[in-house]
Amino acid sequence: MITWELILALAIYNFIMYVTPGPNNSILTASGIKFGFARSIPNVLGIPTGHGLQLALVCLGLGSLFIRYPILFDILRYVGSAYILYLAYKMFGSLNITKTEDRSRPLKYYEAILFQFVNPKAWVICSTAVTLYYPINENIIIGTLFMVIMSTVVNIPSISIWAYGGSVIKQYLNNKKLKKFIELVLAIFLILTAVSVFFYNL
Q: Closest Cα to residue 32, out of 179, 195, 148, 166?
């Protein structure tokens, strides 16, 4: 049954999970600094779309697969960390390219969606949310829609903070050397994020 107490509890849980540092927010911050907020919007919208699909699958029973086959989480960790390392490599490469030659771009909408399926933190959020907050004795369709809508409503503003924060920093990076230094730090931060994902304790 869906109650106001459940709505509040799930909203708080979602906000804490989505606003805290993780692979998505690291990528969004880097995207905001390098490309600005407007060009990062497809990434911002792709994350809750992909996560909503994940959540629906877990609500419909996919979560039992991870319990039965924990090696699936290991596969997600390896693929997810490899992809983040690839993004860091792309950022490193863009540091030595002139502005006219720079072909780097923010994540596209579908790329952000696909990334959620190899993001171990996203799967843990889904599994925990369904375990703790799925409405008891509710129709499965209504319950799944409730979980997905609650996730999306809270997710978008929570992760937008990171992309917008990056775009604010971008406005103060008129010095090219400083901008390259910041991008170098972000690339290193992405590498550290990949390492943390690889060794994520599931």
A: 166
What pLDDT does 56 receive? 94
Compute the Cα dihedral for 98, 101, 105, 111 and give only its sign.
negative
How many Å from the N-terminal Cα to the C-terminal Cα in the chain? 30
**CB 149, CB 7: distance < 8 Å:** no
User: pTM of the entire structure?
Assistant: 0.81
**Residue 1 to residues 7, 133, 135: CA-CA distances in angstroms?**
11, 10, 5
Looking at residue 70, what is its pLDDT? 74
Query: Per-10-residue mean pLDDT for the chain, 202 residues long?
Result: 93 94 87 91 96 93 72 78 79 56 76 89 87 89 95 97 91 76 78 75 52
Please give the structure tokens belonging to residue 162: 């990171």
pLDDT of residue 101: 47
Question: How far, rounded to the nearest angstrom, does the alpha carbon of residue 146 sit from its chain's CA centroid?
Answer: 20
Separation of alpha carbons 123 and 54, rounded Å: 7
Burial of residue 15 (CB within 10 Å: 0-12, 13-18, 19+) is middle
Per-residue tokens: 148: 């997905």
∠ CA 11-120-181, nearest 5°, is 95
- Residue ranges of domains in the chain: 4-198
